[in-house]
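pls read this stuff:
=====
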Amino acid sequence: MDTPHILCVNPWIHDFAAFDFWAKPLGLLQIAAIIRAGGARVTFIDCLDRFHVNALEEGPVKVLEDGRGPFRKRIIPLPPAIALEIKGKRFSRYGIEPEWFRQDLRKLKAKNRPDLILVTSLMTYWASGVRETIALIKEVFPLTPVVLGGIYATLCREHAQKHSLADQVISGGAEGRIGSIVMEHTGFGLSGTAGVSSLYAPHLDDLPIPALDICKKLPYVPILTSRGCPFSCDYCASSLLEPHFRRRSWISVFQEISHWHNNYGVKNFAFYDDALLVDSEKHILPLLDAIVASPFSSRTAFHTPNALHIRYISREIAGMMFRAGFRTIRLGLETMDFSKCRKGDTKVVENEFHHAVAMLREAGFLREQIGAYLLCALPGQNLDHLAHSISLVKKSGIVPVLAYYSPIPNTPMWQDAVRCSRFDLENDPLLTNNALLPCLGDSREIKKILELKKLAQQF
């Protein structure tokens, strides 16, 4: 049969606030790379594209030195589930204008109608953005099958099946199933897919790197050196999304960084691993050695927005990260309450935190480059303890960064969240949006959190 055309779509965000923190749909772009390697034609439309041709015609797009920048936004009505619960908050669609998206789809319809459309999903509370995206796709291509995957599709499968408008919803990693999905909907057999036939895919080095080259512009590249996490935090969905901790070789990671820099001029790279520093002697240290010794070491910058495990930060690691050009360091602290009776996971003790900070500062990192995430608005959280944690982090000489809790179905903390929330979290994932502070009980606690936010931002 003729080579099929498969369209991949990254949907809009519907939220109270959104910003491009080095974010790309790596899962979808990984699938796109597998499909392309298998002989099918792939195109990509990014509803979050900051560099859409229509946006560029309106004037310069703001790009920070590290590659980040604001998404275009348009205020839209609150979804009914949220409108019933709150008032006075502005809700927006982040990304390109709907008419731009419609025009892009119609261009494909005129030139090469897609045989299959793949849509990804991220935060569960962005479900309404997914629905709006698929609705517009269906308007232009009513007969083309739409398959939805990603985080929302995995964690809220039943909701996605009922509300997303997708023809098929798949949960979990799709690398091992994309061949059968393409065959089912197009009758085309991808070539060379034997290496990705298992449910959780083979060794990660056997996969092609994500097809970021089909993005219009690359002001940065996000990097995953591993999948999953060896830890199981009560609030985290990592083990639900990736049941097994798997890791690429440091050599393949270095080759990918070299590829994007040498061929596309990318200077900023963001590591999105859940456990970047684990088993550092065999992984991060040889990678850092290679980066320092590379011809491009003085021209690249690295960032860790997904938090580093504090207890693994040694003098050697801190020094190598500084020499390799790391610019943004985020630590997974969670709290400065190190008492034995504290609730939740304990991945770090007090002396480990202070040692890590000392090593990073000794290596040469500035105060403003080092942030420690503090979890806030948790079910039953003592906000006085949070205020104390903010003060102690500031005294340590680094920046406290508040990480607002979003309840995630089927995590150990989910039932506590359901019991504590003033919303019916089980009814609609939109109500789990951390901007709503869903697990705070009353207006006094919400006011207290806003005061603590200001405290954290004060130097």
Observations:
- The first helix runs from residue 26 to 37.
- The radius of gyration is 22 Å.
- The chain has two domains: 5-196, 220-457.
